[in-house]
Amino acid sequence: xxxxxxxxxxxxxxxxxxxxxxxxxxxxxxxxxxxxxxxxxxxxxxxxxxxxxxxxxxxxxxxxxxxxxxxxxxxxxxxxxxxxxxxxxxxxxxxxxxxxxxxxxxxxxxxxxxxxxxxxxxxxxxxxxxxxxxxxxxxxxxxxxxxxxxxxxxxxxxxxxxxxxxxxxxxxxxxxxxxxxxxxxxxxxxxxxxxxxxxxxxxxxxxxxxxxxxxxxxxxxxxxxxxxxxxxxxxxxxxxxxxxxxxxxxxxxxxxxxxxxxxxxxxxxxxxxxxxxxxxxxxxxxxxxxxxxxxxxxxxxxxxxxxxxxxxxxxxxxxxxxxxxxxxxxxxxxxxxxxxxxxxxxxxxxxxxxxxx
Length: 357
Fold this sequence. Notes:
Layout (H helix, E strand, L loop, with lengths): L4 E5 L4 H12 L3 E5 L11 H10 L1 H10 L3 E6 L11 H22 L3 E7 L8 E2 L10 H25 L29 E7 L1 E3 L4 H10 L5 E3 L8 E3 H13 L7 E3 L7 H9 L4 E3 L1 H17 L5 H12 L2 E2 L2 H5 L8 H11 L11
Parallel strand pairs: 1-2, 1-3, 3-4, 4-6, 5-12, 6-10, 7-9, 8-11
Helix pairs in contact: 1-7, 2-4, 2-5, 3-4, 4-5, 6-8, 6-12, 8-12, 9-10
């Protein structure tokens, strides 16, 4: 996809800074856009879209920053898997993406890439690009709500564009933006919205990565059974490269794509992050422990659901349906081993001689 200026929202965050660095290395002309802080408890997607449309001042501010922009990458959001307060989560992970999509359509932006999370699929055995979600926490719910609303906007924009009254055009009830200097938007213009479901992204300086390295370096490092299972543990470098590939893709993008598998398994990530062999526990015991954990969490108001889910993924992993990306040759370089070994080194502990390579 030929491009003029690309803009990254949330460029100061963990994922956003990785994407910004990758795009800069690719010679992309880009600018960072600051993400406004929003709060809401609206949990119905249609009502949330209506609320977003009423925030004309914020739409105008973003639209003004989108001037002359060809592509928007939304890497903003609140990555707080254990947070229970919905207002900031929905504000950052659902309401803001909607406003970004609205402002992008009304200013004639060609493509919006939204970084979501595979956490919206819950305990699915395979991470897929399905529109059906199964959130298990406040965080995953807010991400799933954002996806659902964006898919509704995507369908609405495409439908109205086909009818010659797309938002931002003269025949639309939704005006061009910004309101004080509206741009000219073609009646058949439809911004292309693509959602990327990031998997379990790890990287330097991320607390979850350090926590994983500590567990992997301890006697708690374990996997279920003797079989080697795929895991969604991935690197920020591969995600950033994949985002660039999707953003630059010349053809039509699907509504949802999943970050490709980096070749890691439940055992390999523990070896890389802990430099020791994990314990192989009886699979039946692990399943019973996970089931009991979820039941206890339910009794405690789902407070332990996140930690239980992380243990479940450590033991059993998750497969990834990245068939679309592979069919189009959009597979980034695998760097998860590098990231995990760096995380282990940063702990300052001595390496086991058996893993000195």
